[in-house]
């Protein structure tokens, strides 16, 4: 249940015995999330598309889903998508310092590469590191986020071992709605945004641009006595700047057919400290990482009858990352084709989809021992689904076969059932399999091995939720076992590198319990989440790096005198920075405060103070996170 737990208690508590969920092969799934600060609670009539890739009311889902809307994003004061996700149940993040630096997102403790990420239907991934480059996704252009926790390879194919996150840009609505915003904050933060959206007749549109920058702080504040030990001599400020934009267009050909397209871009430059390079004490050339993200999507939606509808979509994404002066450059290009069919017969829904995915990786040469790498591959897939919703019963079945140009065929499946015990209580159970094929870098770089096998998983979970008026509560128990886990093995020599090779050396297990709740009392809304988890290496029982056994979030909002006042507590127990569990990252508790109001009918104000207690903490060893910081933003939205 969403509960406030101080990190001091989490840190001092003795580690509980391992959650032996093998004796509880099923787990409880809540199909709702919190609201405002933590997450938006979807109403039972609200529609989501991420769970099964078709539009479905929340009341019909048998999945663990959270929704974040634009109002929540704006009140969060966050500058990165990962910061918003960190407030949701079952989600942890890591970052090498401030915004713009390398970030990872763990769903239920799973590796960041085990989350499939989409922007307006366009798949975003890296064939170098694996997983989305979260720091390159511009939060200013995102209008809505849907998070599905749990494997979904039977619907989405490779990568969806831990879950799926879909991000959507704004869609134009009737009328004309311009907006402009400005914000200022600590560490020299400046935010500018402007755009317009609307609809006229059969045409709808949305256009937005934004620029963010800050001077930052020193993300590796190492004392002089430690410089010789860690090799860091760069006490400069590590800021960033980002320029982003998006365009979304739609045209209703007739009442039953629609064409829509979406474009998004972001160019970001972020300073970082290269711990592998010692520099003279009096000379500090900036280390800079550049991220460029482009996504595009074109879709044709048609409803041919009350029974049959289709979706034809072509998407494209390009992710570029390079560093200077220590040169490195990698670029991933990904194109997908989707032909999806839906057949509805009363309470029955049948789906059938054909999908093709094409990945290409280009890594520039950095030395004679690290030559240029240019490889590509493709996957063709057929997926089938069936959903049944009638009375208290909800049933969802999926099966998918992927044919990979490198690995051949792989079949995954899932089954889920929900039962409304009473109008207030609902129980669900589900099981599914998933996989992820190795990245092209893991197979063909100087550290790669062409003999790598796909990582595979099997998940079981079950759930219970309660909804009565303004009260929502639920919990989920899950166990997800992964085999053929790919790690970098420093002792491996198969690739011919003296530094080690990628190898299928691991067996991981992600198991845990997530409790969520929210309740409204008059003008006050309370919400919280509490995660007990044990993401561990099954070969040695070590906790997986940078993941805590316990983390929690608690929030409260109070409407008073035209203001919406809020407070939030985020807490985490200790983690380890390495797989050997020898480097400890201490637990922490953060208090954040927010206030927002309408100054005029067209002008709104939001003000935040994050990390009120100025807590000194790290999400990655030697990389400091921001101390106490403030933000004030104004937004003009004429009605």
SS-derived structural category = mainly beta
Largest sheet composition = 22 strands, antiparallel, barrel
Low-confidence stretches: 1-41, 227-233, 276-283
What sort of overall outline do the alpha carbons produce when their principal axes are compared? globular
Average pLDDT, rounded to a whole number, is 88
Number of strands: 36
Helix percentage: under 10%
Gap from first CA to last CA: 39 Å
Tally of alpha and pi helices: 6
Radius of gyration: 24 Å
Percentage of residues in DSSP E strands: over 45%
Write a structural description.
- By secondary structure, the protein is mostly beta strands.
- The chain has 6 helices and 36 strands.
- Residues 1-41, 227-233 and 276-283 have low confidence and may be disordered.
Could you name the key traits of this structure?
five-stranded mixed sheet; mainly beta; globular; about 55% strand; single chain; about 650 residues; about 5% helix
Give the topology, please:
Layout: H1 7-12, E1 47-48, E2 56-57, E3 64-69, H2 70-76, H3 81-85, E4 91-95, E5 103-107, E6 115-119, E7 122-124, E8 144-149, H4 153-156, E9 163-168, E10 175-185, E11 189-200, E12 203-217, H5 224-230, E13 238-254, E14 257-272, E15 287-303, E16 308-324, E17 328-345, E18 348-363, E19 373-390, E20 393-404, E21 408-420, E22 425-436, H6 440-444, E23 455-468, E24 471-489, E25 501-521, E26 524-533, E27 536-537, E28 550-560, E29 563-572, E30 575-576, E31 584-585, E32 588-600, E33 603-610, E34 618-620, E35 623-624, E36 629-636
Parallel strand pairs: 6-9
Antiparallel strand pairs: 1-2, 3-8, 4-5, 6-7, 8-9, 10-11, 10-36, 11-12, 12-13, 13-14, 14-15, 15-16, 16-17, 17-18, 18-19, 19-20, 20-21, 21-22, 22-23, 23-24, 24-25, 25-26, 25-27, 26-28, 28-29, 29-32, 30-31, 32-33, 33-36, 34-35
């Amino acid at each position: 249940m969403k509960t406030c737990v101080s990190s001091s208690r989490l840190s001092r508590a003795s580690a509980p015995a391992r959650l032996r969920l093998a004796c509880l092969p099923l787990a409880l799934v809540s199909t709702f999330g919190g609201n405002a600060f933590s997450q938006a609670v979807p109403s039972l009539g609200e529609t989501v598309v991420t769970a099964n890739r078709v539009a479905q009311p929340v009341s019909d889902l048998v999945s663990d889903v959270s929704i974040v809307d634009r109002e929540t994003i704006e009140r969060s004061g966050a500058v990165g998508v990962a910061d918003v996700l960190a407030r949701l149940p079952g989600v942890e993040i890591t970052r090498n310092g401030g915004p713009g630096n390398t970030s990872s997102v763990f769903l239920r403790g799973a590796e960041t590469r085990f989350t499939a990420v989409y922007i307006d239907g366009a798949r975003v991934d890296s064939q170098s590191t694996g997983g989305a480059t979260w720091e390159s996704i511009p939060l200013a252009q995102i209008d809505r986020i849907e998070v599905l926790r749990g494997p979904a390879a039977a619907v989405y194919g490779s990568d969806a071992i831990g879950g799926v996150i879909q991000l959507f840009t704004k869609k134009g609505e009737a009328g004309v709605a311009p907006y402009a915003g400005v914000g200022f904050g600590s560490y020299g933060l400046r935010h500018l945004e402007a755009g317009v959206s609307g609809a006229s007749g059969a045409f709808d549109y949305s256009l937005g641009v934004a620029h963010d920058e800050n001077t930052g702080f020193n993300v590796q504040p190492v004392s002089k006595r430690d410089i010789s030990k860690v090799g860091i001599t760069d006490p400069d400020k590590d800021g960033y700047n980002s320029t982003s934009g998006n365009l979304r267009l739609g045209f209703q050909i007739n009442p039953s057919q629609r064409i829509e397209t979406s474009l998004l871009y972001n160019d970001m430059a972020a300073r970082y400290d290269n711990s592998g390079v010692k520099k003279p004490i009096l000379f500090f050339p900036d280390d800079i990482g550049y991220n460029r993200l482009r996504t595009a999507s074109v879709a044709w939606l048609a409803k041919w009858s009350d029974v049959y509808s289709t979706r034809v979509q072509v998407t494209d994404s390009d992710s570029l990352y390079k560093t200077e002066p220590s040169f490195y450059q990698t670029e991933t290009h990904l194109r997908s084709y989707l032909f999806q069919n839906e057949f509805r017969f009363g309470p029955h829904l049948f789906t059938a989809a054909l999908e093709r995915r094409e990945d290409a990786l280009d890594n520039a040469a950095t030395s004679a021992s690290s030559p240029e790498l240019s490889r590509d591959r493709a996957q063709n897939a057929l997926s089938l689904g069936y959903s049944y919703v009638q009375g208290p019963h909800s049933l969802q079945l999926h099966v998918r076969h992927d044919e990979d140009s490198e690995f051949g065929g792989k079949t995954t499946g899932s089954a889920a059932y929900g039962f409304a015990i009473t109008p207030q209580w609902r129980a669900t159970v589900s099981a599914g399999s998933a996989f992820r094929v190795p990245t092209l870098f893991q197979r063909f770089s100087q550290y790669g091995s062409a003999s790598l096998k796909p990582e595979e998983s099997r998940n079981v979970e079950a759930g219970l939720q309660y909804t009565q008026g303004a009260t929502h509560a639920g919990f989920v128990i899950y166990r997800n076992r992964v085999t053929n886990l790919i790690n970098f093995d420093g002792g491996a020599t198969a690739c011919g590198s003296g530094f080690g090779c990628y190898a299928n050396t691991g067996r991981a297990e992600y198991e845990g319990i997530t409790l969520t709740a929210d309740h409204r009392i008059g003008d006050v809304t309370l919400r919280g989440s509490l995660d007990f988890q044990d993401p561990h290496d099954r070969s040695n029982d070590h906790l997986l790096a940078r993941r805590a056994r316990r983390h929690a979030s608690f929030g409260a909002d109070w409407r008073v005198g035209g203001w919406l006042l809020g407070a939030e507590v985020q807490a985490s127990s200790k983690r380890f920075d390495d797989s050997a569990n020898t480097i400890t990252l201490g637990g922490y508790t953060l208090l954040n405060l927010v206030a927002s109001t309408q100054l005029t009918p067209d002008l709104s104000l939001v003000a935040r103070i994050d990390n009120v207690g100025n807590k000194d903490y790290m999400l990655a060893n030697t990389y400091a996170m921001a101390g106490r910081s403030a933000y004030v933003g104004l937004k003009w939205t004429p009605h």
